[in-house]
Amino acid sequence: MSSAPPPTAGQLVRFSAIAVPVAAAGLPLGVYLPAIYARDYGLSLTTIGIIFLLGRLWDAIADPAMGALSDRTRSIHGRRKPWIAAGGIVFGLSSIFLFFPPFGVTPLSLGLVLFFFYLGWTAVQIPFQAWSGEVSGDYHQRTRIATYQTVVTSSALLLTLILPTIADQLRPGDGRLQLTLMGGLVLLTIVPALFLTLTALREPPLPPLPASRPRLGETIRAITGEPLLLRVLASDFAVTLAQNIRAALIVFFVTFYMGRPEWAGGLFLFQFVFGIFAGPIWLKIGRRYGKHRTAVAGELVQVAINLSLLLVTPDSFPLLLALTLAQGLAQGSGNLMLRAIVADVADKHRLDSGEDRTGLYYSVFSLAGKTATAVAVGIALPLVSWLGFDPKGVNSPDALTGLLLVFALGPAIAHAFSAALIARFPLDEAAHAEIRRQLEPGSPGYAFAE
């Protein structure tokens, strides 16, 4: 096996730079933009909801298509870099119209902007994730690479969360100012981030191109016929589902159950501050115990934290702060390990089939997370409403108890399910080392050297 030195810390920080504009655009897209477009630009909530739903459906189609296309791309610059560069241009230009609409906002203009925004975002994100899994074939180095991306992403999300708070201090309720600050962060970082990422590392040698173009049925079988991939996808779906149930309800929980509306945004920010420190902690645990065991441990910690929320009362705000701190330190542990495992599964598939489908596998991994984000809102909000909670009216003690139960038990159950799915995962460090040995140059399954 190649003894090429692992990437330095500086190289990995540069390589992860593209996560800054991507995260800075992604958070407002789901949290702030719909409300601002409704309040400040006059679009109805129904219209915005339909447009964003159609945008997500387009995104769901584009993800696997981009994964398969980047797997088959051959150029002097590699197969991932051209897509990231082109996608970055489309992403940046569409961000101008998304955050700084020059002629107002109409349903048609918003739909067109989101079409190109999601196209550019996918062309950046999916090839970048696949490239991340190819930087090294070493079992633990892949976790290290994913950790740097997690820390950079968390830092970008923290900064993005701070900007609307600053806007509210300057001009309360001014949605256009919030858009200006958040969009400014995206536009200021996209060009330097692209440069840093594209020049940080060299792509590995290109694998052989399959003799025939894969058909749709063959591509679907490559996904559904890999049981280890399906376990990883289901486990990550459960992790993301848990996280987004909590995110969808945290403002309601803090405002109505705790009676502390002044902390509704601050508590979310508090969690992200400690989330920045989570990656290096879980990296060390992963090196010692392996990725799937660490993922299970992280999910069980999350189960304990969320069950402990059942002990929180409106008078025990310090307990909620402590649990939020713990939530931040445990944040993303499962996602981090599972993302690194995808590359290991792609190695196994390449050895078994002779086909390199790393980009395809990361695209369906991304799609699973996006689907879970949508499903979480579709479960959490109707459920608390059915239990009697109404954010516009006076809530009975029973309705507030229902809110607490969904806020605590929903994520706890999903995290427990994630842990059960990934427990006793057979592709551990020893099994992966044997796969990499058989993928040495000259072997039938060889795709690329480290």
Automatic annotation (TrEMBL):
SUPFAM superfamilies: MFS general substrate transporter. GO terms for cellular component: plasma membrane. The chain crosses the membrane at residues 12-35, 41-61, 82-100, 106-124, 145-167, 179-201, 263-283, 359-384, 404-427. Keywords: Membrane, Transmembrane, Transmembrane helix. One of its GO terms (molecular function) is symporter activity. InterPro entries: MFS_2, MFS_trans_sf. One of its GO terms (biological process) is carbohydrate transport. It comes from the Bacteria. Signal peptide: none annotated. PANTHER family: MAJOR FACILITATOR SUPERFAMILY (MFS) PROFILE DOMAIN-CONTAINING PROTEIN, MAJOR FACILITATOR SUPERFAMILY DOMAIN-CONTAINING PROTEIN. Belongs to the sodium:galactoside symporter (TC 2.A.2) family. This is Sodium:melibiose symporter.
